[in-house]
Amino acid sequence: MSIEVRNLDFSYGARRILHDVGLSIEPMETLTILGPNGAGKTTLLNIVAGLLPVSSGSILYDGKPAKELGVRHLAQLVGYVPQNIVPAFDYSVLEYVVTGCAPRIGAFGRPDQKHYDSAAQAIQSMGIGHLADKSYRQISGGEQQQVSVARVLAQSPAYILMDEPTSHLDYGNQIRVLRTIKQLAENGFGVVFTTHNPDQALLIGGKAAIIGRDGRLTSGYSRELITEPFLSELYGIQLRVSKIDEPGRRICFMPSLDI
Amino acid sequence: MTGRGGYARLALCTAVALAVLFVAALSMGRYSMNPFDVLRVIYATATGGEADEAMANIVFLVRLPRVAASLLIGAALSLSGAAYQSAFRNPLISPDLLGVSSGASMGAAMAIFFGVHLRAIPVFAFAGGILAVLLATSVPKLLRNSSNMMLVLSGIIVSGFMNSLIGVIKFVSRDQDQLSSIVFWQMGSLARVNAAQLLSVSPVLLLSLAVMFAVSWRLNILSLGEQEAQTVGVDIPKLRGVTILCASLLTACSVCISGTIGWIGLIIPHFGRLICGSDNTRLLPMAAMLGGGFMIVIDTLARCLTSMEIPLSILSGLVGAPFYAWLLYRQKAKIL
């Protein structure tokens, strides 16, 4: 049971984004994807979500390619939490979250009481029950992020992909999202997320995958992968990674702005 | 946002109001009748009893086809407007987006120009409308870019081209009568509608309505964007194709017997969202009822206000534009 990415290449026109990427995503694990701007983090996530076609290489979802599964079965296996959405219409949080049940509802069907119940339960489990009847457009960015996670919980796939889940959030909410991701993995989901903050990989542990400027991917356990020379090369700045006594963990930081 | 029980009550009230409006419209006109007499005539005819023959003739032969056509056309235009707005994620578009109305006008103008029999004009209008949509949807396929934006631009191209063709027909037409028929057709009227016409379009119309109701919840997902929809397992090309097909058929069936009628497909969905929210499972039935009611009012005004028939687009614009301004005023905080 895993998502296996093998020898994946992807280009936008003549520009090669991903080169010979291999990756495996397992249940009960977090995978942090790092990489400089434009390296292809979101592209990789979109390919794994089935939103972009694989030009060469293969992806197997529990042993089967996406074509064999079809969009609906793929959606039962893989859920996606996008960066931010701007709905053109004013849906309530509950109406939005219940769309997560779509993979289990027929083409001409609509959600019935049990789907609304599971959506409400997903909202409750994110601790945002008070938002259920609010308009999605009138809640804050942090709340929208929680609602998006609630929607993917209502979808209940085996694997959850999150595109920069902390990018629009204040520091407190960033930490809350990381905590949620860790809990999701403990509850059995395989969770993949992209981020610009390498310290998040150290904080959450698990595995990390780093896309370099040449489109090649290096993956392994976060604590082994996140090293000073590697990050400094990756981002082109002199980052420090060192163990600090008080939290007792390794921290990635910038010592000063001097060159 | 109202609860589901609240919506059921709201829908019931709207349905009752619509029924009252329907009977009122049947009783109004040059030969004015008491609404209760109208009900008595309908009851008597339905149960095989005796009814006043003059009244029965007016009700069943003159007014019923026309009021029923108003109801169906108003419902169809509003519903296809709501569906198009969801499929294209834009509350500002109307069912004419892909050129169905201008194509139908072109078909009708062509038929009038070549002196086709009056009864065949709707056939040409229908064909013109569907042709325009086929053209508009095939341009993105040729260019291998099936994005929403490409489809919208392609619709603009096709509408513009169809309007130019209508201009050519008007320009070369030397016959004043032809010219005024074309202009009159473009302004919309139900004066010439008859039961046979109505019956010939109703199967397609009702079938398309039924399909739209069936996929209404999926339209919510489609309106969230392609990425959102695909990641919850929606087959986007299929759903969007079905939506465009049914919504275009609804519009084509309507305008081919009534001529083009502006505003309804744009404002009624807005009004519907204001009173029952954006969820399409609630909005589509509500928009259909509101649109039917609005159209009955407009058409009744068109035939009763003056001794002459007033073209529908004039009234729907005169009533619709200020109404839309009022709606925008009510929603100003929610418009981004």
Task: Describe the fold and architecture.
Chain A has 259 residues and is of the alpha/beta class. In chain A, 34% of the residues lie in helices and 25% in strands. Chain A contains nine helices and eleven strands. The longest helix of chain A is centred in the C-terminal third of the chain and has 16 residues, at 171-186. The mean pLDDT of chain A is 92. The model of chain B has no long low-confidence stretch (mean pLDDT 91). Chain B is mostly helical and 336 residues long. Chain B contains 14 helices and no strands. Chain A binds chain B through residues 46, 49-51, 71-76, 78-80, 82, 85-92, 95-96, 99-100, 102-103, 105, 107-111, 133, 135, 137, 155, and chain B through 1, 85-86, 89-91, 214-218, 220-221, 223-225, 227-228, 230-235, 239, 273, 277-279, 281, 334, 336.
- Label the structural class of chain A: alpha/beta
Q: Termini separation of chain A (Å)?
A: 47 Å
Strand content of chain B: under 5%
Helix and strand succession of chain B? HHHHHHHHHHHHHH
Q: Distance N terminus to C terminus of chain B?
A: 19 Å
Low-confidence stretches of chain A: none
Q: For the report, how would you describe the main beta sheet of chain B?
A: none
Unreliably modeled segments of chain B:
none
Mean pLDDT across all amino acids of chain A? 92
* Main beta sheet of chain A: 6 strands, mixed
Backbone CA Rg of chain A? 19 Å
Instruction: Report the principal-axis shape of chain B.
Output: globular
**DSSP strand count of chain B:** 0
Secondary-structure element string of chain A: EEEHEHEHHHEHEHEEHHEE
Largest interface: A-B, 38 and 32 residues
Q: What descriptive keywords fit this protein?
A:
heterodimer, A: 259 residues, alpha/beta, six-stranded mixed sheet, three-stranded antiparallel sheet, B: mainly alpha, globular
How is this structure best summarized?
The complex is a heterodimer of chains A (259) and B (336). Chain A is an alpha/beta fold and 259 residues long.
